Target: Carbon monoxide dehydrogenase
Amino acid sequence: MADKKKSYDNTTEEMIKKAHCDGVQTVWDRLEAQQPQCGFGQLGLCCRNCNMGPCRIDPFGEGTSKGVCGATASTIVSRNLVRMIAAGAAAHGDHGREVALVFKAMAEGALEGYEIKDETKLKVIAYKLGIDIESENTEIAKEVARTALWDFGKQDEKIITFADAYAPKSLKNIWSSIKVAPRNIDREITESMHRTNMGVDADYLSLSLQGIRTSLGDGWGGSLIATEFSDVMFGTPKPVKTFANLGVLEEDKVNIITHGHVPILSEKIVEAAEDKEMIELAKSKGALGIIVAGMCCTGNEISMRHGIPTTGNFLQQELAITTGVVDAMVVDYQCIMPSLVDVADCYHTKVITTSEKARIPGAQHIEFQPQKADEIAREIVKNAIENYPARTKDKIKIPSEKMDGIVGFSLEAIVEALGGSLNPLIDVIKEGKIKGIAGIVGCNNPKVEQDRGNVEVAKELVANDILVVGTGCWSIAAMKAGLFKLEGAELAGAGLKAVCDKLGIPPCLHMGSCVDNTRILVTIAAIAEALGVKTSDLPVAGAAPEWMSEKAVAIGTYFVASGVFTVLGTVPPILGSSEVVELLTEGVEAVTGGKFVVESNPKKMAALIIEHIENKRIQLLGKRG
Ligand code: BF8
Ligand code: SF4
Model:
């Protein structure tokens, strides 16, 4: 493994070398030290759900075929899968709840630091939810917040209000026919934990259905609330030019990286760093100014809304610190490697944790409270400035690479680029100029070469006239590779290129952070409704070439449950049960119209998506091209 290429991105390769010269251990070193990884775990065949275990099932059928309690391979694999979905949905849901609580406090006038920035979006949300839009904005916002929080706490058996308001009828009918309509965002997570407890649900089928229900509470609930409310408070993204990769850091400025997921804090850091007093303070320390740059999804949030540059995606978080110029790495929660403090030990960087939910031993903790948002953001920025003189000159190396691109393609922005409705997009799909739409999402995973799958699948698809939309760490990979530049259209097939040139858009569109996968869901729903067909009838597909997080499992599951053919590039831990594999890769299609496929080769992954889209075109439009 030591000699294997670790990244498609030369910047990463270069900085791994620097890390090693500086004596820093990286995620790749630790992956190597973990080899061989547990075969039972890889297959999903180990269970630690009670203290009669841990139990594992012999995948070759020669040894133990049941856990101490009698659980079979399918029971154990499906229970583990459901727990992954529940954990992923919990992360998104808890993020959504935090945004909703801030939103509610803002509407009640209890917070100074937040306001309604997008009044139109507030009214659109309220209208969808059936809330009177004639009253004062604050009254509308209060009612919208109450409805969202009700979806986290209601105890009736009805579908959550947000899913009811946003999902197409055809999907809701499917969900109720198999009893997977989510009733309460938190309840589905709790029930998943209950069912997977020792001695409760042992049937892989009913467990899997609960997994689907939990994921739908995420996609059409927790994540959706996070996206919609963030748009109202911080603005709905519009196309904006920005940059990505470690070259966005500057040696003679104070560099602050915001890393994590929730924009409630990162938005405030951006504001605080623009404050004159802070800039003067930075100058008094010898710096020319202050740079705030993002990392991972909170980076996507501020890049989409303000064009704030992005330092990199998941596998670059440690490497950002090895540049020696990061004065503070400010983290909230999710996808933050605890190793950041070990890396920071070799440099002057302060790792600042800000959420009481995500503490890291060795990090400085400045707890964020929305009531004191501005004050705390300034304190954090001040900490970074004061750390600027502590840099060690001979440890500094900033890679030159930074790529520009246009980001900010919310559904609203896409509709605006199309002249006010989705119809022109639907028309070019019908004409075959654009054959279909693929959503590429998800992470980096050190088990595979960083960014290769993410970038190559996208390139192959656009070359075949498939418009690519995406989120999360995929987006950052795509931006670094130049796919968000207008000139990226040169890589597209003639039909897609013509559309991109006409509209002035790149062939791959950045739709946001991972909670913003809901923008993709809502887009697909809108196209299906405009055509009067089911989502699964559309020439669309999803892919997660380099996924690693439990959140990605929840996302993949809600896409499949929403009728989307979804290809995974890294293998999920389910191969220990042929029944679970059959259900997710075949059986589910008969019900939702979506299914999972696993394919790690980017070219083959793209070929599967192209074939799927061609088939859907024939079924829907009676033609291939
Ligand atoms: O939520 S893509 S590595 S940063 S999990 Fe994490 Fe994966 Fe990146 Fe955003 Ni999404
Ligand atoms: Fe073993 Fe059953 Fe306990 Fe799991 S729940 S550890 S399979 S005894």
Q: What stands out?
A: DSSP finds 25 helices and 16 strands in the chain. The pocket of FE(4)-NI(1)-S(5) CLUSTER with Oxygen (ligand 1) is lined by residues 261, 296-297, 314, 335, 442-443, 472-473, 513-514, 549, 551-552 (CB under 6 Å).
